[in-house]
Amino acid sequence: MTEVLFLADFSVIKPDPGLVFWTGLIFILVWFFLGRMAFRPIQNALKQREQDIQSSLDEARKARQEMANLKAENEELLKQAQEERVKILREAKEAKDTIIGEAKEKAKLEANKIVENAKAEIENQRMAATIDLKNQIGLLSIEIAEKVLRGQLADKPGQEKFVNSLVDEIKLS
Amino acid sequence: MKVEFKKLFLLVFVLAFGWGMLLAQDHGQAQKNSGTETEQHDEPGAEAGHDDHEGGEYDPVSTVMGHIADANQFHVWKGVHIPLPVFLYAPEHGWTTGLSSMFEHGHTAVDGYVLNHHGRVNRIADPSFPKGEVHIDEIVHKAEMVGEKEKDVYYAVYEGREYQLDPPSTIDGGFLGGGITSFYDFSITKNVFTIMLAAVLLILLFSAVARGYKKNIHQAPSGVQSFMEVFFVFIRDEVTKPMIGEKHYERFQPFIMTLFFFILFCNLLGLIPFFPGSANVTGNLAVTMALAVITFFVVNFNGKKDYWEHIFWMPGIPAWVKIILTPVEILSLFIKPFSLMIRLFANISAGHIIILSLIGLVFLFGENGQSIGGAAGGAVVGGLFTAFMNLIELLVAFLQAFIFAILTASYIGAAVEEHHHDEAHEGAH
Question: Are residues A18 and B189, on separate chains, in Cβ contact within 8 Å?
């Protein structure tokens, strides 16, 4: 009897059309209601959010890229500026050196010129002095010679001796 | 410390089990000698389950079957029932509606309808039975030979005469002991009530979640929204997207989600052992049948040309194989939803039966309250096993909902797939 009871009472295996109807009806209602009110909006919201996140990430990456580019550019600029500075400094130094060199050269030349002028002047002066001295000495010698001659030529033998020496000199030359 | 606790636990368990078995055997012997005459005429004025009444022999199978069955009232505890609306249709009589409380637990017949011991509406088909509200003396149960088989037949006793009771029609075609009878029961039964409850809970829950998405645009999810989003994203990324494919999955996401959560909530409500729960909804073949039929229509209404071609005239194979394959493919159209129906039904029903059987150990070992020691032993063993089984059933509740959803998704995926195979076949030509 238990076996029969089992089969007779195992009612869950005997599908009741009422339960099939209600299950189907409620399921379809829940499906349409939730689909319309919840699942579609959730799906769209999730998709929207995923897109938002993706675009934000993309933007962040782009910004980072730009930042990196900017930084690289800045560094390039800085480097260029530094190079420029070094170049300018070097040029300035060169210019300074040239100017100083030129100035020195010029000064030297000027100095030389001045010295030369001075030397020439001195030479001139010295020449003038020498000439003057020569002239003086000439004059003095003439005077001395005059005086000597006068002394020697005061007597007759002297005059003759002298004339003879002159004659000898002439002969010799 | 931990090991000692384990040993103690095991000792208590074994002792309790052995004790309960011993006591049960003792009383079982005594009971067998005196319990034979109770079979013929039992359960006078009984309520929903056999374990409710005193004096009668405890019949675990009948109790379990009574508990997993559908009913027209919600049994809360001994003698307390929540009445549910009844909508009954008899072809020759028309509609009868009302609340199940109008039957006064089997003591009153309304238009020939009575409530049987399991809280289910039956009908007296005999046209000589008076219409309107009539007091009936009792409902008796007999085992009769119908053709070859022995069958349980219930009678309502009215003015000394016995009237045979018809159970509600079922659509098993008589294969499973049911069949079309004199009336149809479209009532809000215990199962329908639970399905409605699950539907309301689902709608409340997901309305709150959807509100969260409206409120938190361009913001991180919060509260229940973030909790449920995990499920939504899981179903989308692990079930619909891989099974149905990038192109079509969005159309079916609501359906798969509804399937998963509908089944899950019905499963979980079935695991709650008291009032709003306890109904064996997804362990009823009618419920899984409805879901399987809907799945069948959703799958086949979305079948593309390729899908039908693969069923009726599989491309790329010899003609004689096609002749064998086509009937197999056509059969598989129906076997797929059929397997969904049976799998869910069997898993959930089995879980309920196991838990109820384990609880039944208390009454079995306790010999209907005659053996307090046996009942205590049964309570320890049954309690521990039930706690364990409940955990497994919790897993099964999620697992079966998931399996139903993922298989449905894979069937839909096969139906909407396009040109995938053709290219391979053309390559082979």
Answer: yes
Chain A: residue whose CA lies nearest to B118: A9
Cβ atoms B335, B395 nearer than 8 A = no
Joined together, the tokens standing for residue A89 give 């400094």
**Whether residues B136 and B203 fall in one domain:** no
State yes or no: ipTM above 0.85: no
Q: Could you tell me if A27 and B291 are in contact, meaning their C-beta atoms sit under 8 angstroms apart?
A: yes
Q: Among all residues of chain B, which has the CA nearest to that of A48?
A: B218
For chains A and B, what is the number of CB pairs under 8 angstroms?
187
Same domain, B207 and B307: yes
Does the pTM surpass 0.80? The reply is: no
* B250-270 pLDDT, tens digit each: 889 999 999 999 999 999 999
In terms of Cα–Cα distance, which of B354, B342, B347 is closest to B400? B347
Q: Do A38 and B287 touch (CB under 8 A)?
A: no
Which residue stretches of chain A are H helix? 2-9, 17-34, 40-152, 156-172
CA distances to B78, B90, B115 from B46, in Å: 10, 26, 11
Tokens read off for B131: 């219409």
Any idea of the CA torsion for B149, B152, B155, B160, to the nearest 10 degrees?
70
Q: Is residue B424, in this structure, part of any structural domain at all?
A: yes
